Amino acid sequence: MARLSMHDRLPYDEATTPPRVSTGDLPDPADVQRVVTEAFHLYQANADGVVADYIPALAAASPDLFGISVVGARGRSFEIGDVDTPFSIQSVSKPFVFALVCEAEGYDSARQHLGVNSTGFPFNSLMAVELNDARTMNPLVNAGAIATTSLVPGTTAEEKFEHVRDGLSRFAGRELSMSEDVYASEAGSNMRNHGIAHLLNSYGRLYFDPDAATDVYTRQCSLEVTVHDLAAMGATLANGGVNPESGDRVIAASVCRRVLAVMATAGLYELSGDWLYEIGVPGKSGVSGGIVTVAPGKGGLATFSPPLDPAGNSVRGQLVTKYLAERIGLNLFASEARPTLS
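Request: output the structure for the sequence above.
Response:
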């Protein structure tokens, strides 16, 4: 008997025979807003964590900044706090750029070029590259993210960056711009990322000039968003690739579920297992203090609070996400016993 591989194609086309889905709805809107407000007041006074200081432009962020936004798959938003304060997207950009590459390249090709398995190592690990025989990573650690950016359509660095900026703008539902201050600060201190890019290039796992790819990646991380933007971007992944506020289809539904799978297994780096065990929702964090999580069919949740734990994740953001995941039913693994048939 032939052994079935999980990489084998199913005997039908997903585009013409879409798979059945397992999703639900958010609770009553008044309940969602009440719980979001509760979470804000519950954790607003938390003073744990420190603002990132290894990127000089981020060190000036106020530790008091705090915002929460939920954007439902039907386009309704529930927010409180500093929801209009811009901050650089940083690593939260990674799953969305991966989505753009999957859309352009095909998700099977993207997996072959980039890898999708969790490394179990920190986000900027060189050892993870060396220990992997295929030299592929996943798109959410720095090595895989730089490789992902190198695959973005375009023959020049400018064309690649414009494709990224335009794509992330469509995810957010408005035009995004780059923070020149953050870009200059990161470009002057990202030698490790340049080293990662050259290492990948030596193994044939980078698909553009290594220094140019690193520069595009740095500009990508310097794009400015608000916590509402992140929630809208998450809601687009929750809504089968259609931005629920603009109605714009950004990526295919078949791409969405592959991106969410990688977010679930690698979005919090070496702590992804703990995150999924406690919270049960695909997520991605960034060093500026943003976290985005996605509940398929329900919506996107985003938080912004600059103080970070030792692993580089927002302290308040993690607490809020866990609270809301439980209180408004976002955990993918939660279920209730049903009555037996009589």
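Confidence is low (pLDDT under 50) at residues 1-6, 128-135.
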